[in-house]
Specification:
By secondary structure, the protein is α/β, with parallel strands linked by helices. The protein folds into 2 domains: 2-71 and 230-399, 3-Layer(aba) Sandwich (Alkaline Phosphatase, subunit A), CATH 3.40.720; 83-225, no CATH class. Helix content is 35%, strand content 20%. The chain contains 15 helices and 15 strands. Strands 11-10-12-1-13-14-2-15 form an 8-stranded mixed beta sheet, with helices on both faces. Strands 3, 4, 5, 6 and 9 form a 5-stranded antiparallel beta sheet that branches. Strand 10, helix 10 (248-256) and strand 11 (260-262) form a beta-alpha-beta unit. It is globular.
Amino acid sequence: MKYVVVLGDGMSDYPIAQLGNRTPLQFASKPNIDFLASNGEIGMVKTIPDGIAPGSDVANLSVMGYNPQRYYTGRSPLEAVSMGVELSDTDLAFRCNLVNLDVKDGYESATMIDYSSDEISTSEAAELIKDVNKYLSDDEITFHPGISYRHCMVWHNGAGTRSMTPPHDILEKNIAAYLPSGDKGELFLSLQKKSYEILRNHPVNQARIARGLRPANSIWLWGEGKKPAIPKFFDKYSITGSVVSAVDLIKGIGLCAGMNSIDVEGATGNINTNFRGKAEATLDELRKGRDFVYVHLEAPDECGHRFEIENKVKSIELIDSLVVGTLLEGLAAYEDYCLMVLPDHPTPLSLRTHTSDPVPYIIYRKSCQKPSGATGYDESQAQRTGLFVEEGHTLMDKFLVR
């Protein structure tokens, strides 16, 4: 038996006037996914436990079968694992975004313009993080480059608790109410302010401005946590697995779980990614003997954060045609297989951030096709079936029944 999860990050949404009071899933043309919904099991699943912030870290841990209330230690440590950053048991890791701020009347009064600095390239970002590390690192603090705008800061022997806000939650807002606070909050604010002085006139940013792109003129720290310790996927389910993703968070979860992490040429973590390449890499892993592949598509989430209505619809359609369509062609060679499609959490266009609402899921098994009563895949049709998984981490047990 072969198992594949297609995770469309942030696909779920609310009805929006610009789409005729439909959600992107209702509006998009997605015949392959609709076929799966009509001939498999479709329902709703709660991926974010009560009392935990709705992040991709928590939600993807849940979908992979790990109870966030037991295993979640913070977002950045999972990304650090993917970056190859060695963490001790006393280290604290932090996500370090390269952001674009509109600074007119002092740093504390700035406005968050872009959490990704126009999706800054990995090569440009590496130069900026190199200089941030050169001038701001010491015996306690080090900075490590990641992919695009996503990087890592490690505070060795760090302690205490803080309030630190994800930058994608405060787009177009004044940052004054969202600056680091709590234990050592002044240290992290100082690092962000100093980074602005380092980056504002950096040659990389001057070149970006000349090309009409936003400069990455500050770091933004958030998502702290300690080294994770989660059971190996094989020990938990007795099957071998791989993850296919362009973002360090998902790669890190997979590596912590003892799975292979597969890099795909041209995979970016946004809508300009190699959708078909991810599907082909998934099929290649199955041909090599892997039992399970978790293929993650970031594009719908990015479009939700950026209020790109047409692109969110387009990203869903590309997932349907280039990912699910390619997978269905390749999986046809197997006597039996099981395919699950779902988001990790909603990223409503109207809010431009994550919510904790339950999300629609499909479980389709080749040998057990049966009419579900649904005519397609969306939030409303999934709700109407009455099927509801209260604890998201148990969905994987349901999916992997043999």
